[in-house]
Amino acid sequence: MVRGHVLVCGGTGCHSANSDDIYDAFEKEIEAAGLKDEIQVIKTGCFGLCALGPIVVIYPEGAFYSQVQPGDVKEIVSEHLLKGRLVTRLLYQETVVDENTITSLDDTDFYRKQKRIALKNCGVIDPENIKEYIAFDGYMALAKVLTEMTPQQVIDEISKSGLRGRGGGGFPTGKKWAFAAAQPVGDKYVCCNADEGDPGAFMDRSVLEGDPHCVLEAMAIAGYAIGSNHGYIYVRAEYPIAVKRLRIAIGQAREMGLLGKNILGSGFDFDIDIRLGAGAFVCGEETALLNSIEGKRGDPRPRPPFPAVKGLFGKPTIINNVETWANVTRIILNGADWFAAMGSEKSKGTKVFALGGKINHTGLVEIPMGTPLREIIEEIGGGIPDGKKFKAVQTGGPSGGCIPAQYLDIPVDYENLIAIGSIMGSGGMIVMDEDNCMVDIAKFFLEFTCDESCGKCTPCRVGIRRMLEILEKITSGQAKMEDLDTLENLCYFIKENALCGLGQTAPNPVLSTLRYFRDEYEAHIVEKRCPAGVCKKLLTYSIDPEKCKGCTLCARNCPVDAIVGEVKKVHVIDNNKCIKCGTCMSNCKFDAITRK
Predict the structure, then answer these.
(1) CATH architecture of the domain covering 4-112
(2) 275 near 269, Cβ under 8 Å?
C-alpha cells in the first residue's frame, strides 16, 4: 500500500537544472531506506513556479521543496519520508507556519488567485503514463461526444462556451469549427499549432510536457465535430521533451484504442502525426505552418481562402494552438456555461501567461480573463526585485506592445489590451523596471522580427529593415527629430500592407513605446542621452574624485588604456578612447566610477 508520493518536476526548466538526477537519487535512497513499497516517485510536468526550481512536492503533506539539489535527497528521505520531520530549510518559505506545520500551496500568493484549467494536470500526473491521465477523467470527454453528442452539438457547446483562440488572434473557436464542418464531405484535417516562437514564452511547451493527452483528446473531439479522420501536431524541434512525451502519448493512445480505427467501438476513425518545425518564427502563422507541414517553404499564403475552407493539401482544415486545445475537454465535461461563467463579457475562461523579465516569481500563471495587470505582477508575480520601480510590461511578444504603469489596473482581456496598443498574443508577459530602456526594447523585438521575416512581401522584408536602421541611429545618437515621423509612418504602412499577421503586428512594440515613452526617444535624439543608461554608444563613464583612492585597479584592467592617473592620486577617464565596456566599473572597489 503506497502511503506517499514524491513528485519531481520534469519540465524543461527543472530538467535543465538536473531534476533527472534528483529523480534517480530519490529512487535510490528510497530503496536503500526500505521504503520502495511505501513511497512512489513520479516525474511530472511543470508546477509553474519556475523561479524556485528544481521543485519536489511530497504528498500527502503537500510539502513544497524548492531549489532541491541531488545532495539534498538523502536528507529528505531520512527526515521527511522515514521520520516524518519536515526539512524546513528546503521548503518554500511562504508555506512554512512553524517547524512541523505547513500551509497549502494553494494559499500562497502565487497560486491563490489562479484558476488552473489548461494547466489542470501539469505538476499533478506522470505525463508518460496514460493511466494517470485516465484516472483524472482523461478521455471521458471523447467518450461523451462519441456516445451522447452529435457533431453539431459539439460545435454548439464550444461556441456557447465563448472559447477564443489562445494563440493570439482570439478568433472564436466554435465559429472556426463550424466553417470547416460546413464544407462538403471529404478529406478534412485538424492541426495543432505548437510552434511557440515568442521570446520568453513557454506556455504551450509546458502543457505538452505536462499533459500531452489533453491535446490529443481535444483534437479527436474536433475531428469528430468537423468530419475529419486525421490530425497533425506541428511542434518545434527545439522542444525535445515535449516531442518525446507526445510520441509516447500517441503510442499509448493507439495501443488503448483511443486513437486509430473504430475508437471506443463507435465507428469513428482518427489518428495523429507529428511534424517537427525547424524554428522559423513565421511558421507560427497558420498558413505558413500549413506549407511547412506539406514539405514546402514556410511562407504565408494570401487569405482568403481561409484554412477552414482550403487549408492543408487544399482541404478544409482547422488550426488551434496548444492552450486552446487544452480547454476543449474541460468544456465538454463541465459544460459551456461553466466555462462562460469565468472571465469577462467578451473574453471567457482563463489565460495562461509566462511571467518573465524583472519579476520575483518567474513562471507560469493561469488566471481568469479580466484579472487586473497589477494583481498578476504585484501579487502573483511577487513584484519587482531589489525594490526597483515598475516601468512597463510587454504582452504578446514581438507582435505586442509595451504597457506603462498608468494601465496597471486595466483588466486583462482581448479587447482591453488592443485598446491600449498591445495584444494578448500567445501569453508571453515580460516585465521591465526602471533600468530598461524602452527604445532598446523596441529595437530588440524589431531585430527579432527582422531576422525572422520570411521575406515574401516587401513591406515586411524592406520596411522592418528600414525601421530597424532608424532605431539604430537613435540608440547611437545619430538621429534627428524628423526620423521619428519617418519611423511612425513606416509603422502604419507596414501594418496596412504586410501579407500576414506577423508582419502586420511587427510595428506594435515601436508604436506603443512611441506612444507612452516618447520622452525617451527624444532624450536619445536631442540630448544624446539614454535615460536608463543602457544604450552603449550614448554612455559616459566618469570617476568621482572624492571616492577615488588612486588604487590603479581600473587603469590596470582597462583594455584600451583610457584611464590615466598616478598611484594614490585621482584617476581620469579619457572618453575619446573609452569603449564603454564597463570593466573599470566592475573592478572598482570604492564605487567611484559612474555611468550616465
Answers:
(1) 3-Layer(aba) Sandwich (3.40)
(2) no
CA angle (33 as vertex; 29, 39 as ends), nearest 5: 80
What pLDDT, on the 0 to 100 scale, is given for residue 216?
98
- What kind of fold does domain 539-595 have according to CATH? Alpha-Beta Plaits (3.30.70)
> Which residue in 588, 78, 301 sits closest to 86, CA to CA?
78
What's the one-letter identity of residue 160? K
Using one digit for the tens of pLDDT, what is the confidence trace for 296-331?
999 999 889 999 999 999 999 999 999 999 999 999
What's the pLDDT at 1?
67
In whole angstroms, give the CA distance from residue 530 to residue 513: 14
Write down the H helix ranges in 407-463: 414-419, 438-452, 458
Closest CA to 311 of 176, 445, 126, 403: 176
Which CATH fold topology does 130-340 show? Answer: Rossmann fold (3.40.50)
Question: Which grid cell sits at 120?
Answer: 489542470
Q: Enter the C-alpha cell of residue 88.
A: 524546513
149-157 own/partner pairs: CB under 8 Å, 24+ apart: 151/181, 151/224, 151/225, 151/226, 151/227, 152/181, 154/221, 154/224, 154/225, 154/332, 155/181, 155/225, 155/226, 157/331, 157/332, 157/335, 157/336
Q: What is the dihedral of CA 105, 110, 114, 116, to 10 degrees?
A: -60
- pLDDT tens-digit series, residues 106-132: 888 899 999 999 999 999 999 999 999
